[in-house]
Model the fold of this input.
Amino acid sequence: MTLAPPETLALDDRFARELPELALAWQAEETPDPRLLVLNEPLAVELGIDPAALRTEAGLGLLTGTRPPAGATPVAQVYAGHQFGGFSPRLGDGRALLLGELTTPDGRLLDLHLKGSGRTPLARGGDGLAAVGPMLREHVISEAMHALGIPTTRSLAVVATGRQVRRETLLPGAVLARVASSHLRVGSFQYAAASGDVDLTRRLADHAIARHHPAAAEADQPYLAFFESVVAAQARLVARWMLVGFIHGVMNTDNMTISGETIDYGPCAFLEGFDPATVYSSIDHGGRYAYGNQPVVAEWNLARFAEALLPLLHDDEQQAVALAVESLESFRPAYAAAWSAGMRAKLGLPDGLDDAVAAPLVEELTALMQSGKVDLTSFFRALGRAARGDAEPARGLVLDLPAFDAWLERWRALGPDGDAMDRVNPVYVPRNHLVEEALAAGTAGDLAPLTDLLEAVTAPYDERPGLERYAAPAPGDFGETYQTFCGT
Ligand code: AMP
Ligand code: MG
Done:
């Protein structure tokens, strides 16, 4: 396989050509002193780009967008969105650019996209920039999600720009180079719908079907099948989040993809003590995007998506609504099925087990975890040991021991497979105190803690000696007071 140098990388502009109403041709801002902070070499190879060349001046020019390859047409994408429930008709890439679409050596079409590359016409009041810390956060968390097997955008690199960014204090600026199967969002459809141009909505849907849900094109009602396919993909995705304790933090409709990938790692965090009310985001006062509310919000967002698609579903609006409502009803069972299949796997239970046996076990365990605010990640790993005979580590994590012992007895009688459990229950997730430590050091110029954290979380199921601190919950009351910040 030949790896392309960055300056000759072939980038298509299919999105911009097919949907010019949603694309503003734009250029990245110059970077005074670009320096590579982190490069995802395996991903570069997967994309067919020479990693060594990405470290050169030409490589940094690609990764910051200041020297796009010949023939590329970088664009800012226009979209709308419900933010915390309120509709904004015109959002879009205020500080981001789609450099173009590349075809990987194994034939996949992927977006190469930048974040923090300067103000665009959609920047509204923003400065168009991003700070090193939040871009490193997206890098480490998205790569951890990928390693956990959860659909997500990927991070190719973070480059420090040499420019200062004004937040509460002056911070070093950075550009993140991100890869996604596309950046189509529920908000993209909301923008098209709000424009009143049904032909635009149709072209956008056709583009999305071709890219992500090709089977829908063969259905009797392709647009309804498309909607149902997105509903199913989001139900599976959010169930995966819930099973590992991922809290997205800002599930606005502009942050929900049509592909079913996790996108936009802002105030996201991993849950430690199990509590559905957990919120880490400093701006989420009402708990709209709390851990336990994520399935409800996903369904709400999908209802907004359905509204945007109505003109494609039926000429008669009432009939269109009836079709959409019926299709959206598939979300809850799809979510419940994905969640319970995931929980059975986490508990090492056999596939064919009767639901009448499995469901109450899962429910009781969830209640036990909640009443004891049990550390989710450690607990399931400890249960793997319990399945192999040593229940003490798990018993040490719960409060209500009589109830837990009774539960253990019933569960063990089913013969749970501890080794299978260890293949689905991670040892290492990017715990908040470790992420903060890595970002603070990275911002100050020391990337060693980030490198170490990445090493742990990119092989999350594989327990290794010497990495004990990456498996341990935050010390003291760190979790109680922890806050994450948005849009930084
Ligand atoms: P996010 O919360 O990151 O999903 O961003 C929501 C919207 O605000 C998007 O339209 C972003 O492009 C925009 N935005 C966030 N931060 C900035 C910034 N510093 N400058 C310009 N636009 C921004
Ligand atoms: Mg966003």
